[in-house]
Prior knowledge:
Elements: E1 2-8, E2 10-16, E3 66-72, H1 95-103, H2 106-122, E4 126-130, E5 152-157, E6 167-170, E7 177-180, H3 190-207, H4 235-245, E8 268-272, E9 276-285, E10 291-297, E11 304-311, E12 315-318, E13 331-334, E14 342-347, E15 352-356, E16 365-371, E17 377-383, E18 391-400, E19 407-410, E20 413-416, E21 421-428, E22 436-444, E23 457-462, E24 468-474, E25 485-495, E26 498-499, E27 503-509, E28 516-519, E29 522-525, E30 530-537, E31 545-553, E32 566-571, E33 577-583, E34 594-604, E35 607-608, E36 612-618, E37 624-625, E38 632-634, E39 641-646, E40 652-658, E41 671-674, E42 679-684, E43 692-698
Parallel strand pairs: 3-4, 3-5, 5-7, 8-10, 19-26, 20-27, 28-35, 29-36
Antiparallel strand pairs: 1-2, 2-6, 6-7, 9-18, 10-17, 11-16, 11-18, 12-13, 14-15, 14-17, 19-21, 21-24, 22-23, 22-25, 25-27, 28-30, 30-33, 31-32, 31-34, 34-36, 37-43, 38-43, 39-42, 40-41, 40-43
Helix pairs in contact: 2-3
Amino acid sequence: MDLIEQITGSAHGHLGGTNNALGSRLGIGNVRASAFQFFNVPRWSRTATNQAPSNGPNALRQGDPITLTWSILPDGTPLAASGSIPAESSDPSNLIAHLNGIYGNQTAWIALMQQVFDRWAEVSGIRYIYEPNDDGTSFPGSEGVLGTRGDVRVGGHRIDGSFNTLAYNYGPPTGDMVIDTSDGYFNTTSSNSLRLRNVLAHEHGHGIGLEHVCPINQTKLMEPKADTAFDGPQHDDIFSAQRQYGDRFEDSNADANSDDNDAFARRTNLGTLNFGTTTLTPLSIDDNSDQDYLGFGSGTSGAGISITLRPLGSSYLEGGQNNDGTCSAGTNFNSKAVHNLGFALFDSGGNRLLTRDATASGNDETIADFTLPAGTQFAIRVFGDSTNNAQLYELEIELTDPDAPPDITIGDSSALEATGAIGFSVQLSEQSAADVTVSYAIQALTASDGDDFTPASGTATVSAGNLTAPINVSIIDDLLDENDETLRVTLSDPLGGVLVDAVADGTILDDDSPPLMSVDDAQVSETAGSVDVPVTLDAPSGLAITAVISSRSGSATAGDDFTAANNFVSFAPGDVSRIFTVPVLDDSEAEADETFLIQLVNSSNATLGDASATVTILDDDALEQLSGTGSLAGDAPSGGISIAWKAVIGRDYTILFSTDLVNWDPLAGAELITADEVDESFAHSPRPEFRGFYRIVEGYSP
């Protein structure tokens, strides 16, 4: 649903449907030009409760708080069309009947409206009072009268139906609101009727003088588009409201007389604060002359106090709605650093005890552990600089009982296992006049009792006047690479203090290097069927270790001489050796020994040492005589001999030579021939004095 801002005599905004072009009914645009120019319409300067003159020293001005009453128009009260919405009817108000039809009774939806006004009261200097009476007099523009009608009057009739205008609102000094009772948007009551509440909150934003803010990015209630991404006024809306009316403490006496808390004598009374932390938010310095005095009681004389003044905000885009109804892109505005804030602390007589104004704008101002003087009543003054704009802030006040025993805490710790101990520190929040003792015990978490640390228990004592006491836990060094391991120290049975944090975890940091993983060479007979290749670690590890191991061809060929393998090799913690088995393939061919490689890669929790190994397949095939050749003899010394045979191309043949056919004692000088044709031949010239005999065998013999 779109939100469109208009002026019809006084500021007037309405919610338009998503089927409506933004600004299609725009009259005179109210543009919020920059972060320092929030308002082109007036704020409330007079209400039924605040009967201040419109001029003079007592007139209500920017930053002054007010009280607004609100009431519901009786059904049947005449509602003239606004004149800016062509489809709007002139029907009388029927809001009560319409909302009763949705919620069943008036009590239910009045409570929802009360939530909206209560939230505006929490985040601004406006007090709201429900006026149960409304005399139905002329609407809009009839001034509020106590007991008769509210300053802000809410009615409704048919405006233009669903998906168009949802509601509109007149700005100060009127503030009256009209809701479209013919729009189905309000029939959805999920999230505690968030649709209805956000429309009411947005429209009342116009009713206190706020205008539309751009860009549309679901961060601000006063964006010109209805949204349920948030609930009620957001940071920018609160900033604007407090700029005009101050914060909820601006009326120092909460008596509707608009007495601001800008002086010590008019300080807001926060009452007696409990020991612990009290957080006040969101408050503000609303201009260049505003300051906030906040009085409080400590309950006990001599209490300790810590104060943090924290500016609220961030950097974001902010701009106004254009005259044609479109939304501007906005410019960057840092709402956290508008003022350079500071604070001062006073005693009950108005004597200043300290001031903190040390940091730059946008940063916290802090005082810690200051001891309050005798007395129980004090005040804090929050101030800004000369910037004529608002600055939201949060004030955190922490009071500590001077008679309370100190808090006892213990923090986590860690140490390398080679150092031999982990040191813990028992800490007190403040010094004690007497010894503070506490029992402790050590227990295992992921560390092992007796293997990684020495179990112990005992008592730690923080001597009077000190803040800490040590607890040392002995740890046991080992040579295993392993994960960091943990143990726990638990405190109990405090004497002289209060246990606030009784548990601390200690981490034993491993400082051992990961082991080296290597693979060893191996050899095997080709008839063995497989070969076992050793994979080893040079030291055990406390971690599981894996690596990828694979085989690849060398002079031996995968598929012919061995079966290719690719797998993981894994070591459980403590293991140092594994076997990787590769199948070896047998053949009947006499041949040279052959080799293939084993490779390790991608190890986890180990460093690769010798990552490559060679496996040798030892040939064990006997030479076979060529079928059909028998023993061939050649006659010498007639010259040479030539032998021919049918061969297989590419096959190896060995020619053996001997001078003794009977005993066959081969002589040195065997010839190796690799056949390159089918009709292979061999020629030889023996010594003349010998008769030569030859054998041709398939295969290779060195």
